[in-house]
Design a protein that fits this description.
Distance between the termini: 20 Å
Radius of gyration: 17 Å
CATH superfamily: Glutaconate Coenzyme A-transferase
Number of strands: 13
Structural class: alpha/beta
CATH architecture: 3-Layer(aba) Sandwich
Helix content: 10-25%
Order of helices and strands: HEEEEHEEEHEEEEEHE
């Protein structure tokens, strides 16, 4: 089935359409530009001060020109760079159409935990807290389970929260879920190679099925 991280990034790229300003978090989200339809006119934003970056250069990358994860990127026509105060001002003023963040846990209510595992050293929460509330739409990407098989889509987050009730969509290598206040967690898509029963067995939180689910993925 291939690298699950790459599969998640490839699926997430379909969420991005021309005209968007999109912030990509570190981890799986940083892989998305490599799968974006070249015809899409999109400006990617990063907290360290870039607007309008593209895929990783095929050769001779400039390591001084990087995304939030520290990986080299290319700059598209019209792209600009600036300081972090302007970058965060864009986030807080609602100018980011879509934020795609990596996650450690997402709850059925859309709570996001993505910045620290207790006992491990991290530099800080970064811009995730601002993006959780400043972006117009937030998608969380993550592998469906931890290495020990423990589900990451949970009834209630047990890790320190980044923000509450902010995640609108979750994409894993197993499926796609939507979250809204009225219906809670809804499974909208089953990824190739999986069945609904796989999602039931590996998701702690309860969920309902979308009416648009492909029948061949049902058990």
């Amino acid at each position: 089935m291939g690298d699950s991280r790459q599969l998640i990034a490839q699926r997430a790229a379909k969420e991005i359409v021309s005209g968007m300003i999109v912030n990509l978090g570190i981890g799986i989200p940083s892989l998305i530009p490599d799968y974006l339809d070249p015809s899409n006119r999109v400006f990617f934003h990063t907290e360290n001060g870039l607007l309008g970056f593209g895929p990783t250069p095929a050769e001779n990358p400039d390591w001084t020109l990087s995304n939030a994860a520290g990986y080299p990127v290319s700059i598209v026509e019209g792209g600009i760079y600036f300081d972090s105060t302007i970058s965060f001002g864009m986030i807080r003023s609602g100018r980011i159409d879509l934020a795609v963040l990596g996650s450690l846990q997402v709850s059925a209510a859309g709570d996001l935990a993505n910045w620290i595992v207790p006992g491990k050293r991290v530099p800080g929460v970064g811009g995730a807290m601002e993006l959780a509330y400043g972006a117009k739409h937030l998608i969380a990407l993550m592998q469906h389970c931890e290495k020990n098989g423990k589900p990451k889509i949970v009834r209630k987050c047990t890790l320190p929260l980044t923000a509450t009730s902010c995640v609108k969509r979750v994409i894993t290598e197993m499926g796609v879920f939507d979250i809204d206040p009225q219906h809670g967690l809804t499974l909208t898509e089953v990824m190739p190679g999986f069945m609904v029963s796989d999602l039931r067995n590996h998701t702690e939180a309860d969920f309902i099925l979308s009416e648009n689910l492909n029948g061949e993925n049902h058990d």
